[in-house]
């Protein structure tokens, strides 16, 4: 047997481990994303640990000391750090989800590396590829929330064991925005500044005006309407509810009615489901051409 035939046999064997009957499905694709992410794990971990430390030092400790000395802590019933911590966890997960739903999908998946076309040449379906991509984005968002929560705990910003529930809340909030963005990324041929516009005119304003640093009741009425339709506000309300609600603060921070909880969850789930369906459709269209 020639060396070339041996090499070809080895490649076929390696490929067969991932392209099993039915294409291996979502688990095989998820394994691929995890293996790929190992190359950037250290850089990603450093950035996702460094950002929380800087934010919490500047806002939770620095600005928080000013707020706490005034009437802020008294009106909130807790320290300013504990007030912003759940919101920062939710906001960070959304930012990570948005990042994963833009450049990696268009540039890596469809345009330059064309990874998705290679996957689609196997028994894997376009729907499986789309679902695995969204599942990976959800996991990345959840992991970022876990890391942020650990940093918050180190700063003494956790006031209830229920704070761990901010992780699934943050992941849901992230997907409510990231899934529709993923559908957009799978629909365009070139970025053309669209992604920059998403971060500049959607992600950043939502981060600033969705109740992250102050109650939206302090905003003008027109700005409150914008906050109500933004996924991070709903995620922030839920995050504070699971983190601070059990404390029964006199200020009412974290206290959300059962109907409001249902509305927040229904809104985030509806956006996520719509985004998943749209993404699957756009992947099928894109990979069939």
UniProtKB/TrEMBL annotation:
One Pfam family linked to the record: ABC2_membrane
Topology in the lipid bilayer: Multi-pass membrane protein
Regions that span the bilayer: 49-67, 73-94, 134-155, 161-183, 195-216, 259-281
InterPro entries in the record: ABC2_TM, ABC2_TM_bact-type, ABC_2_transport, Nod_factor_ABC_transporter
The entry's keywords: Antibiotic resistance, Cell membrane, Membrane, Transmembrane, Transmembrane helix, Transport
Domain of life: Bacteria
Keyword Membrane listed: yes
Annotated PANTHER family: NODULATION PROTEIN J
Family: Belongs to the ABC-2 integral membrane protein family.
Name recorded for this polypeptide: Transport permease protein
Organism: Jatrophihabitans lederbergiae
């Amino acid at each position: 047997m020639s060396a070339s035939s041996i090499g070809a046999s080895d490649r076929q064997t390696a490929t067969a481990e991932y392209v099993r009957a039915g294409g291996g499905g979502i688990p095989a694709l998820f394994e691929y994303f995890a293996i790929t992410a190992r190359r950037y794990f250290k850089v990603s971990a450093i950035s996702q640990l460094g950002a929380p430390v800087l934010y919490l030092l500047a806002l939770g400790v620095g600005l928080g000391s000013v707020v706490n000395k005034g009437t802020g802590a008294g009106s909130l019933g807790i320290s300013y750090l504990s007030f912003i911590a759940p919101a920062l966890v939710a906001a960070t997960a959304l930012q990570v989800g948005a990042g994963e739903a833009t450049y990696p999908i268009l540039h890596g998946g469809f345009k330059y590396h064309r990874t998705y076309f290679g996957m689609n040449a196997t028994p894997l379906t376009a729907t499986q590829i789309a679902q695995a991509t969204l599942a990976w984005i959800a996991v990345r968002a959840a992991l970022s929330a876990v890391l942020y929560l650990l940093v918050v705990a180190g700063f003494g910003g956790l006031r209830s064991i229920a704070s761990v529930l901010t992780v699934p809340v943050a992941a849901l909030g992230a997907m409510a925005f990231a899934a529709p963005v993923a559908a957009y990324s799978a629909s365009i041929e070139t970025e053309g500044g669209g992604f920059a516009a998403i971060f500049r005119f959607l992600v950043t304003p939502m981060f600033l005006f969705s109740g992250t640093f102050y109650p939206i009741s302090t905003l003008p009425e027109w700005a409150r309407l914008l906050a109500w339709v933004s996924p991070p506000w709903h995620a922030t309300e839920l995050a504070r509810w699971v983190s601070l609600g059990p404390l029964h603060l006199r200020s009412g921070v974290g206290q959300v009615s059962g109907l409001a909880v249902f509305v927040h969850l229904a809104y985030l789930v509806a956006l996520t489901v719509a985004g998943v369906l749209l993404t699957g459709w756009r992947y099928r269209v894109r990979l069939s051409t």
